Model the fold of this input.
Amino acid sequence: MICFSCHSDKNKGIYSRMGHMHLKKATAKAVKTLANARYLIALGKPRVVLRYIDKFIKAICLGKITPRQIDIALTFDCNMSCDHCFTAPLFNGNEKEMDYATLKQVARDCKKLGITVIHFTGGEILMRKDLETVIGLFEPRRNLIYIQSNGMLATKSRLLSLKKAGLDFFGVSLEYPDKDKQDTFRHHDGYFDKSLLALSMAQEVGLQTSVNITIDNQLIHSPELPKLISHLGTLGHIVYGNLPVPVGRFKEKKNLLWFGDERRILKKLTERFPFFRTEFDSNFGPKGCPAMKEKIYLCAYGDVLACPYIHVSFGNVITESLVSIYHRCLGFSVFNTYHDHCLAAENKMFIRRVIDKTLDFSRQPVFYKDLEKELKTPTFKR
Ligand code: SF4
Done:
């Protein structure tokens, strides 16, 4: 394990062993972490809670942080064609999705790394007919199991079957409070209503539910956003705010990106609504970008990325262990630092030097060695 407690932007690169977090910060972290733990307790999985408490104590008392979550794309195939899709460039019909033997090995490595949240995603995850079997490979009693879907293929019987297989959380994505705008964005009539229906079916079978909102530059400044968050929270959903990232199909929609003081607005919303959060809010370490330190992204064909939006592969689990790939990636200071902003969405220099460069290559993700010089840039100024 590595101590990341001092790896904020201000104290980059300083390793420390014990008890060096200010009491105030530690208290604030404890309050937020306990709020997260509330959702865990409601799952009725005592082993997950015990593992979570163990990670929490090690983080607070020893400053030892291990990854908390892995996002596993089981397929890049999809039934839709949305305007913001970041996985579209990763899809390759000629490559093979990971087989069960590889996934079993990934599950063992997740255990070694201390990961407690297994988040299956796509493409459209419900297109995997064998999702129940895959969930079984990841010891659902020891792990919190989450799926992120567009909801269009959800039926009550499938959701119940997934619940029985060990699924805990069902999440869908929404972007706009306006039904017509939402359906146009997704190129799918009735998307808005159907996604809410899928969430309500998930609740009926006993799953916890969440909604991801990709908050573009217009929505973040709109009075409709707090209304949407409030409405979704009233329906019992956790709401996650995602930033618009210039990757995949969003690449061409530069007018929708953030480069102003939008994070300040986002922060205020997380303070106002207890059920609204960003990925910065679930860290065991300092608030900030969790890429690789706390969250790992695994592509359908086995490539390991620090972040779903940064299409750089640090190795492939078909030929190498997840543990060694994780350590390799943390050898790059840009990924062992808790940046106080999103590298992929808000850091112009990182976008120019790394993200835009990946477009020069025919296969995505690009192998890290092809961008090693760029990744070793000492400081990425915003
Ligand atoms: S770069 Fe941005 S999207 Fe990626 S992990 Fe960091 S904060 Fe999240």
User: Anything to note?
Assistant: The chain has one domain: 43-375. Residues 279, 289-291, 295, 307, 309, 342-345 surround iron/sulfur cluster (CB under 6 Å). DSSP finds 14 helices and 13 strands in the chain.
